[in-house]
Amino acid sequence: MDHKMVLGMIFLVFVCLGCKQADRNVHRVAGEDRFLSGAEGLSDEPIPQATAIFWVDKRTRRQGEQLHVRTVKVKVHICTSGKITILSYVKQQPDAVKHYLNERLKYFRIPESMFKSETIVAGEQYVQLRYIPANIR
Asked: Which of 18, 63, 64, 124 has CA atoms 20 to 30 A from the CA of 27?
């Protein structure tokens, strides 16, 4: 057999195995966030994608500083005034995180320009809230 042909066959085997592994990872990740979990248990209702990501903590990073950020996917109600009210969490969160996010959202408002540009619409929807865990006391 030709040397190039053997290398080509080995490359093809690695590509096939890599695609199979990637496909397995996609199904695993999709299955993790697929169902709502709450006090009543799992629901068969699929969770839609988040429509927006909101940073509830405003803090600039100093040069050389590592800033750890966490994201929580939640179902919220967005008022036309820009106020966000959390209705439920997709994954169960510690009470300290729930309390911290509720306190931060008391003062957090969505800018009116986002409503005018129709980037955000009022009503119930899923969003991601990003926060800095080091700020939780």
From this structure: 124
**Tens of pLDDT, residues 30-60:** 343 434 444 434 455 677 888 899 998 877 6
Collapse the DSSP code of 91 into the 3-class scheme (helix H, G, I; strand E, B; otherwise coil) and give the result. coil
71 forms beta bridges with 130
Helix (H, G, I), strand (E, B) or coil at 21: helix
Kindly report the pTM of this predicted structure.
Answer: 0.62
Q: How many residues would you count in the chain? A: 137
How many angstroms separate the CA atoms of 37 and 34, rounded? 10
pLDDT band at 18 (very low <50, low <70, confident <90, very high): low
Of the candidates 85, 126, 125, 122, the residue with the CA atom closest to the CA atom of residue 102: 85
- Of the two residues 18 and 100, the one the predictor is more confident about is 100
The Cα–Cα gap between 26 and 19 comes to 11
**Three-class SS of residue 69?**
coil
The counts of H helices and E strands in the chain are 3, 6
